[in-house]
Every structure is written in structure tokens, then in C-alpha cells.
Specification:
The chain has about 220 residues and is of the alpha/beta class. The chain has a single domain, classed as 3-Layer(aba) Sandwich (Rossmann fold), CATH 3.40.50.150. About 25% of the residues lie in helices and about 35% in strands. The protein is built from six helices and nine strands; from the N terminus they run ββααβαβαββαβαββ. The protein has a seven-stranded mixed beta sheet, with helices on both faces. Strand 1 and strand 2 (about 15-25) form a beta hairpin. Helix 2 runs parallel beside helix 3. The longest helix is centred in the middle third of the chain and has 13 residues, at about 100-110. The protein binds S-adenosylmethionine (SAM).
């Protein structure tokens, strides 16, 4: 994607602070401008361009954790807000997404908000290139929106989360993700429901659950 000078700027209150988030446009506009004949278009719907209500719920949760000096991974970081909130608390964060354009804007957002930038990684969560057991905390806002994502994400957690590490997922209540937590339990994980709230971003309002997953 070209990165023209005209971007949208959103003003967001998250984790008790104001944030300015820049993006190229909204999801509908960006999607319509994409090439219909691109064989990978279905795989690459630009969800990263929205700030999802799940991210706001996640940032609220992260603000209450002790993240300083902890090694953390933000899966599917999109525009980067949850990684920025954690970085501002002193976490050593990697913000990871498989869309280079998302990471371009995430890096812009770090600059705009004067946060010492997380390390932005262009990586597919199905093919993670991390050392085993390297993260204290792993999280993701709205990343279980397809059933087929469960297996690679569970595998990544198993491989990369420290034995006493924790993973947090904020996810809107949708039928497609209703069994994610029972699947984690079935795979031997300890699962705890940490909260539920209605969250609005612009005109979108969703009920979001916050889940914590740990190794037994
Ligand atoms: C619904 S968006 C959520 C973005 C952000 N976490 C938020 O809540 O605002 C899902 C994100 O996951 C990313 N994603 C989807 N599949 C991925 C994969 N296989 N590897 C890495 N990132 C992926 C998308 O590019 C997108 O940024």
C-alpha cells in the first residue's frame, strides 16, 4: 500500500490517558479499494485498520498489571494501541502482525504518542520464530474471530509462554468464538474469566470478555 499524507486521526481515551491514533482510512473504504482479483484478498481483509472495542477492554486490563521489565507479546497488534499502553508502563513489548501496513501505522502511532516504540514484528502467528518459553505475558485483542485460528495460537502459547506466564485475550461475544475457552480447558490450560464489559469505539458497541489462560 502507498502511504499518502492524508490519514485519519482518532482521539481515544484508553487506560486513563488520551491517545492519538492514525490510520489510512476506515475498514470499509480500505477494503473497497483492494484488488478483488487478488487471490489472497479473503485472507487479508484489513481488519487491522479498525480500533476494535476488544482493544480498549484489553488496555484497561493491562493498565492494572505489573508489566515493567516483563517480556511481552501483542498478537495481531493492528494499529498498536495495546502494545503502546504496555510499553508506556515499562514492558518490553513486541507488537506482532502479519500485515506490514498495520506495523507501519503502529510505528507512526508510537511516535505520535511519544512512546518508546515496541519492537514491531511482521510475522504470521502460524509460523512464529521465537525461542521456546521466552514470554512472561502474551495477549491479543479480538484475534479469535475464526475457528481455524485456535490451533496455531494454542501451539504458539504452548511453545513461547514461560511456565509461570499468563496470556490475556479480550474478545467480543460472537458465536464464532463461543467455544474457544472450553477448547483451551480441553487442551489442559487453566482458564479464568477476568471480566466482561460493554465497550464502544466510534459507532461500534460490543460486549467484550477478558480471559486469562495459564499453563497447569
Ligand atoms: C480484528 S483485528 C484486531 C487488531 C487489534 N488487536 C485490535 O483489537 O484493535 C485482528 C488482527 O490480527 C491480525 N492477524 C490476523 N491473522 C494473523 C496471523 N496469522 N498472524 C499475525 N497477525 C494476524 C490482523 O492483521 C489484525 O491486525
Amino acid at each position: 500500500m502507498d502511504h499518502p499524507d492524508q490519514h485519519q486521526e482518532l482521539s481515544i481515551e484508553a487506560a486513563g490517558q488520551s491517545w492519538t491514533i492514525t490510520r489510512p482510512s476506515d475498514l470499509e473504504t480500505l477494503w473497497q479499494s483492494m484488488d478483488d482479483h487478488d487471490a489472497h484478498a479473503e485472507e487479508h481483509i484489513p481488519y487491522w485498520v479498525e480500533l476494535w472495542p476488544a482493544t480498549l477492554a484489553l488496555t484497561q486490563w493491562l493498565a492494572g498489571q505489573h508489566l515493567a521489565q516483563k517480556i511481552c507479546l501483542d498478537l495481531g497488534c493492528g494499529l498498536g494501541l495495546s502494545a503502546l499502553v504496555a510499553a508506556k508502563q515499562g514492558a518490553l513489548v513486541m507488537g506482532m502482525d502479519y500485515e506490514p501496513d498495520a506495523l507501519f501505522f503502529a510505528a507512526q502511532n508510537a511516535r505520535l504518542n511519544q512512546v518508546i516504540a515496541p519492537l514491531w514484528l511482521c510475522m504470521d502467528w502460524s509460523r512464529p520464530g521465537f525461542q521456546p518459553l521466552c514470554f512472561d505475558y502474551i495477549w491479543g485483542g479480538d484475534i479469535f474471530y475464526e475457528q481455524r485460528f485456535f490451533e496455531p495460537l494454542e501451539k504458539l502459547l504452548l511453545r513461547c509462554l514461560k511456565a509461570d506466564g499468563r496470556a490475556w485475550f479480550a474478545i467480543p461475544q460472537r458465536s464464532v468464538s463461543h467455544n474457544v475457552w472450553s477448547r483451551f480447558s480441553h487442551c489442559g490450560w487453566q482458564v479464568a474469566h477476568r471480566g466482561c464489559e460493554k465497550v464502544s469505539v466510534e459507532q461500534v458497541c460490543m460486549t467484550v470478555d477478558l480471559w486469562e489462560v495459564r499453563k497447569r
